[in-house]
Amino acid sequence: MARIIDAPLTHGESGGCDPRAVHGTWGALNAAAQRGLAYTPAVRAKADALYERVKHVVPAVEWPAYAPLIAAINEMKREKNAVILAHNYMTSEIFHCVGDFRGDSLQLAREAAATDAAIIVQAGVHFMAETSKCLAPEKTVLIPDLRAGCSLAASITGADVRLIKARYPGVPVVTYVNTSAEVKAESDGCCTSSNAAAVVEWAARAWNSDRVILLPDEFLAKNVAAQTGIGIVAWHGRCEVHERFSVEDLAEMRAAHPGLVVLAHPECPPDVMAAADFAGSTAALQDYVVENRPTKVVLLTECSMSDNVAAAAPDVDFIRPCNLCPHMKRITLEGIYDALKHMQHEVVVPEDIRVRAKRAIDAMLALPKEKPRAFATGRPEAAVELA
Ligand code: SF4
Fold first, then answer.
1. Atom of ligand 1 at shortest range from CA of 124
2. Coil, strand or helix: which one is 238?
3. pLDDT bracket for residue 370 (50, 70, 90)
């Protein structure tokens, strides 16, 4: 059964599957007090209306721990002309109470390119902040915790991509957005899980090639190969959250919850995708739940996603298999407060890398905007060539 990752978090851990427990609600209360913030009548007036958005996951007794930080963050955003880009895997008090733009990597990349704000705070992981900086070089991009990395982004370097290109001359390179700017700079196009199949099809057409190099997630590559029939050269990167789901998990969940609808993210292993009822990016999973209102559902993705979708579908019963991303959970309300207060930690991308990475991101953004594409389930695993 999928379980909490042994996350190297250092403060306030108390276990269980509540991501707020990982940070420690009372740690948040202490964090507010340490910053001279309290749950005063003025804070109540500013923040309490937001509680409605998170009452399904934040017990009333815990709200005074979060409200002072939320009120202070929202005030600083106005004063400093800042926006917060909140990824779907953020905890609900961040996602719903301080996030200005919310969504998956693709949605956040589009917002980063369009916003008029002077400051972007990336409530997500480091590669996302780099993507924002690539698209909005004139803006100050802050990440609240420099340790917020990603196992996929860490699996490959620019030098690796150069070696792969030398080995497969003339084959276009598509890199998943979950990579460093240095890796994107070596690529012909970027993709997210919302548009991976569309970008691979575009690359095959534009390069007149029957093969596409798709890096670095091996499972995403296999899942895209099964959808498109295009030959894929892959890398052996894995998302440490999604690789833990197994068909045995799924069988146990279905046995325990008759009628359960299983939705899988395409970073899951191909046999899990084949056994799911529906598969797609976080945006596609959210759309499915909101449009179809299954009685009981499980999202085979990061645990906080269920909490955040539940706000839009309060009538749906979510089974939560407790797989947290330790990198996403580095981002806390107090970290966001400190980032805005002290203008830390600024993300910088060397200009020559930024320009080349932006070219690859722009190739993706230039494709016709379409609804996040679902992955057909029930397909046999496709063979890919590992570079
Ligand atoms: S969930 Fe997986 S892909 Fe996303 S940031 Fe965490 S490790 Fe990376």
1. 5
2. coil
3. confident
pLDDT recorded at residue 206: 97
**What is the average pLDDT score of the chain?**
92
Nearest CA to ligand 1 atom 5: 150
Per-residue pLDDT at 10: 38
Question: Does the residue 60 lie in any domain?
Answer: yes
Helices (H), 89-192: 92-97, 105-114, 126-135, 158-167, 181-184
Q: Which of 183, 178, 177 is nearest to 159 (CA)?
A: 183
Considering only CA atoms, which residue is closest to atom 2 of ligand 1? 239
Work out the pLDDT band at 7, boundaries 50, 70, 90: very low
In the chain, the percentage of residues whose pLDDT exceeds 90 is: 84
Residue 99, domain extent: 19-149+328-342
Residue 327 CB less than 6 A away from ligand 1 = yes
In a domain, 126, yes or no: yes
Would residue 78 count as lying in a domain?
yes
Ligand 1 within 6 A of 150 CB? yes
> How many whole angstroms from 240 Cα to the centroid of ligand 1?
7
Residue 106: give its domain's CATH number. 3.40.50.10800
Cβ–ligand 1 contact at 20 (below 6 Å): no
**Closest alpha carbon to 298 in 330, 336, 255, 328:** 255
For residue 125 and ligand 1, the question of a CB distance below 6 A is answered with yes
Q: What average pLDDT score do residues 10-21 get?
A: 45
Nearest ligand 1 atom, CA 151? 7
| Number of domains observed in the structure of the chain | 1
Which ligand 1 atom minimizes the distance to the CA of 149? Answer: 5
Whole-angstrom Cα distance, residue 378 to residue 364? 28
In this prediction, residue 16 carries a pLDDT of: 42
Domain assignment present for residue 27? The answer is yes
Q: Is the CB of 215 under 6 A from ligand 1?
A: no
**pLDDT number for residue 136:** 95
Query: Other C-beta atoms within 10 Å of 134: how many?
Result: 28
- Report the pLDDT averaged over residues 142-148: 97
Residue 135 and residue 137: Cα distance in Å, rounded?
A: 6
